[in-house]
Amino acid sequence: MSGILIVAEHTRGVLAEASLELIGAAQVAREKLGGPVKALVVGESAGDFAGALNRPGVEEILVAQSDNPHFDAAAMEEVILTAARVQQPALILIAHSASGGSFAAAVAVRLGSGFAADVTGIGFAENGLAVTRAGFGNKVNVELDFPGKAVVVLTVRGATFKAPEGAGNATITPLSVPLEGLAGRYRHVGFEEAPASDIDIGKAEFILSIGRGIQDEKNVPRFAELAKKLGATLGCSRPVADSGWLPKPHQVGLTGKVAGNCKFYLALGISGAVQHLHGMKHVETIIAVNTDANAPIFNVAAYGVPMDVFAFADALERCAGTP
Ligand SMILES: Cc1cc2nc3c(=O)[nH]c(=O)nc-3n(C[C@H](O)[C@H](O)[C@H](O)COP(=O)(O)OP(=O)(O)OC[C@H]3O[C@@H](n4cnc5c(N)ncnc54)[C@H](O)[C@@H]3O)c2cc1C
Asked: Of the candidates 148, 182, 216, which is a domain's last residue?
C-alpha cells in the first residue's frame, strides 16, 4: 500500500472547492507517507473535471464514467473500492460533506481500513499516520492514530487545507467499473434550491459579523449600515440567525457557512464558541471586539479589542464617514 487517492466531488456541473482542498491535504500527507497522489472522479460528466483537478502534485486522474447524471452513493462506494483494490493507496481522502458522508464509512468498512471523519489536521506519530478531529460536540481536539491499518479512509473538513494553485501535469486514465447491478439502490428525487440570498459568506473577502453582544434586533440595521459603508459582507453568529434578526445565509459556523474566501473578519460581540470558530478561525486577519477580555474569540484574533461594540461602532462610523 502506498500513495494517496483523493475522491473528487461535483454537483450539477460544478466541481466542489473541497475536492481541490483534498489535493492540499494530500500534499501534507505525502511528506511522510510518500506518493503518488491520484484523484478519482466519478459520474456521467466525470471527464469534464479532469482539467480542474490537474493541479500541482497530482500524478494521475482516474476518470470513472457512469450513465447516471445524478450523484449515486452506491456507485461512489463501488468505484472507490475498485480503485482502492487496483491502486492500493495507503490513504483515501474524501470531503466531509453530505455526499462524502453517504459513502465514506461504507468504503472503510468494506476495505477493513482505519477511519476518521471531519478531520482538521494530518500528522504523524510513532504508529504512522495521526490525525486531529473535534470531539465532544467540538469542545476538544482528539488525536487518532491507526495502528495495524495498512489503509486509512478520512473525511476532511472544508476550508481546512489550502488548494494548490496552478496547473499540474497529471495523466488521465479511464477506470471502468460495472455499475448496472447497483441500479435502484439510490433514487434521485430532485434538487431543492436554498432560499435566494444576496449574500454569499463563502465568497466574501471582508466580513463584519455580529453576535448576541449587539443585544437587540433593533441594533441590527446600525451594523448592517456600517458593514455597507465599509464594503463588508454582514455575517452573524447562530443566535442572531435563530432569533430571526438576520436570515440564515448570514450565519457563520458549523451549521452556517464557512468563510472560505475571507481575508478579514471583524467579530463584534461574538464569544467565539467552537461552532462559530469552525467557520472563521482560519481567516488570516481577525479583529474581535468584546467586553469580556477572557472571551475565547480572542484566542484566534490577530487583534483583540476589549471594549463595548457600540462605542467601537461609534468610532468606526466616524472613520467611515470621513472622505
Ligand atoms: C450543534 C451546534 C451547532 C452550532 N452551530 C453554530 C454555528 O454555525 N454558528 C454559530 O455562531 N454558533 C453555532 N452554535 C452555537 C454556539 O455554540 C454558540 O452558542 C454561539 O456561537 C454563541 O453566539 P454569540 O457569540 O453571538 O453569543 P454569546 O456566546 O452569548 O456571546 C455574546 C458575546 O458578546 C459579548 N458582549 C455582550 N455585550 C457586549 C457589548 N456591549 N460589547 C461587546 N461585547 C459584548 C459577551 O461578552 C459575549 O462574549 C452551534 C451550537 C451547536 C450545539
From this structure: 182
Q: Whose CA is nearest to atom 49 of ligand 1?
A: 271
Residue range(s) defining the domain that contains residue 251? 206-321
Q: Cell numbers for 64, please give them.
A: 470513472
- Average pLDDT value over all residues in the chain: 94
Pick the residue whose CA is nearest to atom 14 on ligand 1: 275
pTM: 0.74
Do 290 and 269 meet the contact criterion of CB atoms below 8 Å apart? yes
Number of domains the chain is built from: 2
Which residues line ligand 1 at a C-beta cut-off of 6 Å?
Answer: 137, 211-213, 237-239, 251-256, 269-271, 273, 275-276, 289-292, 295, 308-309
Asked whether the beta carbons of 180 and 67 are under 8 A apart, the reply is no
Question: Which positions ≥6 away from 322 have C-beta within 8 Å?
Answer: none
**pLDDT 10s digits, 60-74:** 999 999 999 999 999
Residue at 197 is within a domain: no
* CA atoms of 238 and 252, how far apart (whole Å): 7
Most ligand 1 atoms within 8 A of CB, residue of 201, 208, 212 to mutate: 212
Q: What tens digit of pLDDT does each residue of 129-165 get?
A: 999 998 876 668 899 999 999 999 999 988 789 999 9
For the domain that residue 313 is a member of, what is the CATH number?
3.40.50.1220
Cell of 165: 494553485
Residues 77, 173 share a domain: yes
pLDDT digits (tens, 9 = 90+) for 259-287: 989 999 999 999 999 889 989 999 999 99
- CA 276 to centroid of ligand 1, rounded, Å: 7
Residues 127, 48 share a domain: yes
